[in-house]
Amino acid sequence: YGLGESLAEFGHEVTIASSDFGYDPMHHSDRLIVRVFPCRYDRWRWAPGLADFLESEVRNFDVVCVESLWQYSTLMGSRICRRAGIPYVLSTNGMLNEWSVRQKSWKKFPYLRFLEGQTLRGAAALHATSESECAHSAMKTWNRWSFVLPLGLQPSAYEDLPPRTAFAERFPMLKGRPYILFLGRVHYKKQPGLLIRAFKDIRAARPDLMLVIAGPGDPGYGGPRPSPTRGTRTARHGRERTPLCARALHMAQSGPRIYRGVRRHSGGNTQEQRLARSRRSPRRAFGFGRCLGLR
């Protein structure tokens, strides 16, 4: 939605097409046209109405932004774009990293070979959010037109922030003490367990130091599936909306400045604003006016 709103600010006409799986009606914007279709099978995000919409409407757009892998909207959206001759940019969201591909590889390898490979090869470009993702994934194996555009922050998320003392008031044990902040998804892929074990050694030299782990947690984390934090207790919060995450970041960073974690891009250049201003892709120039976001 952030990317769509920024594109709209620059005069482009933006439509977002999605299944209703995980759809949040709170994400409403007068600048965007949003089309939501019933999801018939959650695991694959199967929404037949979405494919029907694309078949009839995709030729009315100049470029399509496709989000993520391993789901129906990605497969059908890219396939319909190729048939219609409409360029699409695919955001892989780290799903081609070696670690990610190895998870449930018995499903992913044949899916890549027989289905998703065409999606990757046929894209006008693949979008990575960091140099690390681009360097340590198979993106360029599938498509040499890959580019890096870091994630930005929405300024609106920081318009209404709590006072600087709010974090210490909520967690009095941190008041006046230095701490390390891990801010991100609490998932064993992020290896918070490694940080916890390292912190044990660090605290031997700095007994006043505290560790704060903040972020949304996956429901299955810490359950029967093995994870690096086995034998430790990790507090986690439910899914936070962006403004709440912004408040948490502001509150935490207002305290003693020893923390791990957040890459910010300032100067008024969020990912959405930079992409909206840019009219070039690594493959060809798009002077587009109508953009379709597909998730």
Structure description:
With 295 residues, the chain is an alpha/beta fold. It contains 11 helices and 9 strands. The protein has helices at 2-9, 48-57, 72-84, 98-102, 105-121, 131-135, 139-142, 166-170, 192-205, 242-253, 271-277, and strands at residues 13-19, 33-37, 63-67, 88-91, 125-128, 146-148, 179-183, 210-214, 290-294. The strands form 2 sheets. A 7-stranded parallel sheet has the order 2-1-9-3-4-5-6, sandwiched between helices. A two-stranded parallel sheet has the order 7-8. Helix 9 (192-205) links the parallel strand 7 (179-183) and strand 8. The chain is globular.
For this entry, give a set of tags:
11 helices, about 300 residues, seven-stranded parallel sheet, alpha/beta
